[in-house]
Amino acid sequence: MEQGELLSFLIEITADIFGIKDDKGEGYLVDKVLDKIGMKGTGKWTIQQAAELSVAAPTIESSLDARFLSGLKEERVKVAEVFKSGGFGDILTDQAVDKEKLINDVRQALYASKICSYAQGMNLIRIEKGWDLKLGELARIWKGGCIIRAIFLDRIKQAYDRNPDLASLLVDPKFAKEIIE
Q: Among 99, 107, 100, 101, which Cα is nearest to 2's?
C-alpha cells in the first residue's frame, strides 16, 4: 500500500486543522475542540436503508456508533473516573510506544476501513432496486469534486472497469490482496 492511497479532501483538511495554532492562547486549536460531535442523519439513513435491503454495513454502522458514543461526553467522563479509581486510568501512558510502527499500523487500519466502507456503500448502491448505476462511473464522478473525493476512487473505478458485475470491492483481486497483507 502506498501512502498516497489515503490522499483525500477529508484527510487534507484534517491535516491542515492539526497544524493551526491557537491565536488566542498557547498550543494548537485542535487541543481546544470538544471531543463531542453531532449528526445530520445521513449515517442513520444509510444504516436504515442497509437494514431495509439486508445489506451488511458493519464498518459504516460502527462509525455511526462512534458518533452516538461521542455525544455522550458527560457519561464518558464519568466512566473514565470509575476506571481511573480502579487503577486503569493511565495504563497506556506507562508503555513505550514505537511511533513509526504506530503510525504505520494506524495508516493500514485506516486504509482497510476505507476499503470496507466503500465496499459496503457500493454494495448498498448496487442492490438498490431500479437504479442500474455504473459503479465505476460513480467513483469517477465523485473524484471530480465532492466531499469524498480521493485518489482512492481511481482504484475503485479500475476495479469496476475490470469487472462491472463485481459483487464487492472485497473480492476484487487487488483490493483482496491488500486486505490480506
A: 107
12 within 8 A of 18, measured Cβ to Cβ: no
Tell me the residue type at 138.
Answer: L
Closest of 117, 127, 122 to residue 137, by C-alpha: 122
Q: How many CB atoms lie within 10 A of CB 127?
A: 13
Of the CA atoms within 13 Å of residue 85, those in its CB half-sphere come to 6
Angle between helices 173-180 and 152-162 (to 10 degrees): 130
Burial class of 138 by CB neighbour count within 10 A (0 to 12, 13 to 18, 19+): middle
Query: How many Cβ atoms are within 10 Å of 100's Cβ, its own excluded?
Result: 8
- The β-bridge partners of 8 are 150
Its sign, for the CA torsion 130, 135, 141, 143, is positive
- Model confidence, pTM: 0.81
Per-residue pLDDT of the chain (181 residues; tens, 9 = 90+): 455 778 788 888 888 988 999 888 888 988 888 777 777 778 889 999 999 999 999 999 998 898 888 888 889 889 989 988 887 776 667 778 899 999 999 999 999 999 999 999 999 999 887 788 899 999 988 887 777 778 889 999 999 999 999 999 999 999 999 898 8
**CA 55 to CA 60: how far, in whole Å?**
11
